[in-house]
Amino acid sequence: MFQPGFGETTIERYRRLDKIGTGTYGVVYKALDTSTNEVVALKKILLDVESEGIPSTAIREICILRELQNQHIVSLKDVVTTDDKLFLVFEFVNQDLKQFIDSFPKEQPIDPKLIKAFTFQMLQAVSYLHSKRILHRDLKPQNILVDSNQNAKLADFGLARAFQMPLRPYTHEVITLWYRAPEILLGTLEYSPAVDIWSIGVIFIEMVTKTPAFAGDSEIDQLYRIFRTLGTPSESIWPGVSKLRDYKKTFPNWSPTSLQSIVPGVELEGIDLLSKMLKYDPSSRITAQEALQHPYFRDLINA
Predict the structure, then answer these.
(1) Domains along the chain?
(2) 138 tagged catalytic
(3) Quick one: DSSP state of residue 58?
(4) Taking the model in full, what pTM does it have?
(5) What is the pLDDT of residues 154-180, one digit of tens each?
(6) How far apart are CA 182 and CA 191, in angstroms?
(7) E-assigned strands of 75-156?
């Protein structure tokens, strides 16, 4: 299950320094690798030895991460098991994108060049994932790490999974609500890599405005917040939408708002890219590979 070198060390090799987070399946610590003096992130997962053992999300995360080598994806360094715990050892990155956004004073915008760079780096990582036929399925600022050189790195692959063509039905319970694509909110089970692109579009808005774009408190509230901004979808702009499981003919009919008013100060090429990432019809939504060639990134492509 593990590649050579994984699972062969003992947990005593890692000395915990600070607790830095708590997730659904465990606790994350800042730790010191005493054999190399390198600071690492140590994700502790409790095992239920009486029943299921290692959670399926942890198995999936390990199996996916051990196959990935990309500068914008957090690297898995080691896997250590004890009788009742599983430890995943990652490279240590000092903050996530949410913390980075919150570090700015209320009235101070984030440098547009940095927003562009982070968006480009996220798309590079997602393009790499999709080329490997992997969906992340939980992109949000808390799962994008920002290192000391202001490089973005995708993290937390607990909901990631491999996909095949043609698409098969997948679980509906993916992607944190605020970053969930409308096709999933409307009940489709056969979703595509386009769901990750939607999430990046929403994160793009959040970096510009420094507040979540669609902060719904339920699935219907989430849909209505999206509809109020992008307009209520119809068959003319999204063929087949009325056949989705949770589509209702009684949805209020909102007209779209100008994206320029949503992300003031963003150059026109950025507005165009955002409109392509937030297209309702997932089959028309821009792919990560296409997005990387967009004129918005001209200065980064030619750098």
Answers:
(1) 11-91 (3.30.200.20), 95-301 (1.10.510.10)
(2) yes
(3) H
(4) 0.90
(5) 998 888 877 755 544 444 555 689 999
(6) 10
(7) 76-81, 85-91, 95-96, 134-135, 144-146, 152-154
